[in-house]
Amino acid sequence: MKKKLYDFPILKAPVGKKINLSKYDPGFIDHYRSKKHAERQLVEDVQRLADLQTSLYAENRRGLLIIFQAMDGAGKDSAIKHVMSGVNPQGCEVTSFKHPSEQELGHDYLWRHTIALPDRGRIAIFNRSHYENVLISKVHPELLEAERLPGIYSPKDLPKNFWDERYRQINEFERTIIENGTTILKFFLHLSKDEQRKRFLERIEKPSKNWKFSYGDITERDHWEEYQKAYEDAISNTSTHRAPWYIIPADHKWFTQAAIGNIIVRTLEEMDIKMPRLSDEERSMLAKAKKELKNG
User: Fold this and answer.
1) 229 falls in which pLDDT band (50, 70, 90)?
2) For 33-81, how does the pLDDT look when each residue is reduced to its tens digit (9 = 90+)?
3) Alpha carbon distances (Å) from 7 to 45, 127, 158, 263
4) Could you tell me the pLDDT band of residue 138, with boundaries at 50, 70 and 90?
5) Residue 182: helix, strand or coil by DSSP?
6) Which residues make Cβ contacts (< 8 Å) with residue 85, sequence separation at least 6?
7) DSSP class of residue 295?
8) What pTM, to 2 d.p., does this model score?
9) 182-190 and 123-127: which strand pairing?
């Protein structure tokens, strides 16, 4: 029987406990004997995922929301590309959340994420998400000025419980989504600072990857420890039994992709998706159509 990776403590964040990311090994590869071993499993899971997506689409009663968060260079894009390679685009949509537009800033911070939630029967992937509002905004609180919040004109105006309130709002937002039929998976790709350095250098040294590099990535790298703390706080406060966080070791992309693929497949299997049942009238119509087709 295939191991259920999400049962392993190293991957699933505990609920109600303080997370210390230094205790999680970004280079962890679990039970995999080799890269080829992980890649074989990923191929199997990609095929299984395609079948499960078809069932989800046919059932048309529930949705799946997959959230990816990580430091730059952790491999979010490649994970989405490889894990979702067999999925029918008709039943899946990826949204990459960049700097909010003026229209988006005219609403509460959850608005633009709400309108991107999956329809029933579909899978939605958030490449970055509403969690940016307790991550980058926490590291750079001056960004909150653009939200035009009542009484907040600069970071010094933030009340002491501001971030606790945001965690509460996010938990309530996710609870509402779940209660209305959407399952949520949250992946934090845990990359080491040294591996990020290597990947940034590769982007600079390989002309084919130059387009991936932005000097702003170096600027944000200077805030590494602040981001680690922000992630620890976010995961500690928002990993729940119904919307858990998974801390995915990201120093080996082949492991990252295999682990994510396996977790998605096992989660869909546990949803116990039911193919739609035909009524007696619909079955009668099928039999009639079959007879007519056979008669030419």
Assistant:
1) very high
2) 789 999 999 999 999 999 999 999 999 999 999 999 999 999 999 999 9
3) 17, 24, 39, 9
4) very high
5) strand
6) 46
7) T
8) 0.91
9) unpaired
Which residues lie below 8 Å from residue 30, measured CB to CB, with a gap of 6+? 5, 8, 10, 255, 259
Whether 28 contacts 255, CB under 8 Å = yes
Angle between helices 253-270 and 76-83 (to 10 degrees): 50
Q: Which of 240, 250, 249, 264 lies closest to 13 in space, CA to CA?
A: 240
- Looking at residue 2, its amino acid is K
C-alpha to C-alpha distance for 11 and 218, rounded to whole angstroms: 28
Structure-token pair, residue 134: 């307790």
Look-up: residue for tokens 């070791």? 249
Chain-centroid distance of CA 66 in Å reads: 4
Buried b (16+ CB within 10 A) or exposed e, 88-125: eeebbebeebeebeeebeeeebeebbeebbbeebbbbb
pLDDT at 10: 56
